[in-house]
Amino acid sequence: MNLHTLLETDLTSQVEFKSEKHKEEFMIEFSDMFFERLMERAYALLSDEDDVKLAELLQAQASQLDVFTFLAEKTPEFAGLVGEVFLDQREEALEVLQIIK
Fold it and tell me: I need a surface site. Which of 8, 42, 72, 76 has the fewest CB within 10 A?
C-alpha cells in the first residue's frame, strides 16, 4: 500500500466528500503537504553527507518508496517521525474538512 492510498483510506473513513473529484484533489494536496513536511523534518536528522544523497534522490525523481527506504536506513527514528507528521497533519486536515464540509 502506498502513502497516498493509506492516507486516503484513513481520511475518507472520517469525512464524506462533496464529490470524487473534490476527494481526489484534497488527497493530492494532503499527500504533497505530508511529503514536504516529512522531508523538512527528516533533513534535520541527516548528516551533511546524507543530506546531499537525499537531495540527489529527490532531484532524480526517485520513487517515494526509494526515498522512504533511504530515510529509514539513515534515520532509525524515521518510522516514528512518519507517525508524528501524519497524526499532526491528519488532525489539521480533519478540522479543515469539517469546516468546509
Answer: 76
Cβ atoms of 41 and 85 closer than 8 Å: yes
Residue 50: is it exposed, middle or buried by C-beta count within 10 angstroms (0-12/13-18/19+)? middle
Give residue-wise pLDDT tens across range 81-101: 988 888 888 888 777 766 665
What DSSP line would sit under the chain, residue for residue? --HHHHHHHHHHTT---S-HHHHHHHHHHHHHHHHHHHHHHHHTTS-HHHHHHHHHHHHTT--HHHHHHHHHHH-TTHHHHHHHHHHHHHHHHHHHHHHH-
User: pLDDT tens digits for 40-64?
Assistant: 998 899 999 999 999 999 999 999 8
Query: How far apart (Å, rounded) are the C-alpha atoms in residues 32 and 4?
Result: 9
